[in-house]
Amino acid sequence: MDVLIIRVVGGDAYFKLGIMSLVISQWENGNKKVEVVPDDATAFHLSFDFYEEVVVVHATDLIGAPHLSESKKGCWGNIYIPFNCRRATLAQIERKISKILAISSWKVPNNFDLIHLIAHNDFKRYQQLSPAEFMILTLIGQGIDCHFISKTMNRSIKTVRTHYRSASRKLGFDNQADFFRFAKYVANNSQGAINTLCL
Prior knowledge:
- By secondary structure, the protein is an alpha/beta fold.
- It has nine helices and five strands; from the N terminus they run βαβββααβαααααα.
- A five-stranded mixed beta sheet has the order 2-1-3-4-5, sandwiched between helices.
- Strand 1, helix 1 and strand 2 (about 30-35) form a beta-alpha-beta unit.
- Helix 6 (about 130-140) packs across helix 8 (about 155-170).
């Protein structure tokens, strides 16, 4: 039996119940079950964490790639997927959850990083963040303004703003506040790896 372990984190009970019911309706059938753990759980090896701005896929636990050494599995990290559902319709949210749950069937190539995972699976058709866009995302998430980012990256302010707009479009955020909340989460948790997946 395939058990999908999820955690839905947040103070909004309607958000939590809605996400749980959508995941269960898309995943569960005769041999597939969903286990929802409390949002303060720390002893579980989680597969998916749903927040209001981001879904965290614990890739090493989820995939459990048998050909990787334990040390390489542990250091790889998580995948961060923007999950902006405040202004989305129910159909759009269902499509997004469907894409996210499809990650559970990924084929894992020997070179285990996000770029190779995208290339070997069904997500290569989506535009992903470039290294410059990801760097700007993390710097904005740290609270750094465009002028300082421009000096840090030795790029014009116009170029920095263009990268910001491009990253925002790829991630699906239509306002600065939602983009900043996602950027702040990634900046605090990404540990320098480009591990943001645009779906």
